[in-house]
Amino acid sequence: MSLDPPTYLNSLQNNIRSRPIPWEGAVRAGNITEDHLKKIKAVDKVRKEQRKQTVEGNLDGYCTLLIGSGDSKSVLEYASRRNDIVQYILVLATDLLNDVPLLLSKILEQSQPYNAYIPLLSQSPNPEDPVPLLSSTFLTTLVATSITTAQKPLDRDTLALQKLFGYFSTLSQSSDSGLQDIGVQGFSSILRTSNSRRLYWEQRKQALDPLFDTLRSATGAGKDSDSTLWSGATSIRSADTSLSGGVGLQLLYHVLLVIWQLSFEGELVGEELERTYEIVPLYTQLLRLSPKEKTTRLLLSTLNNLLTSNKNNLVPAAVLARLPALLGNLKGRHLTDPDLLEDLDHLTEMLDEYTKTQTTFDEYAAELQSGRLRWSPPHRNPVFWRDNARKIIENNSMELPKKLAEIMGKSWDDDKQVLAVACNDVGNLVKEVPEKRTQLEKLGLKGRVMELMNESNEAVRWESLRAVGEWLRYSFDG
Question: Is residue 50 pLDDT above 80, yes or no?
Answer without folding.
Answer: yes
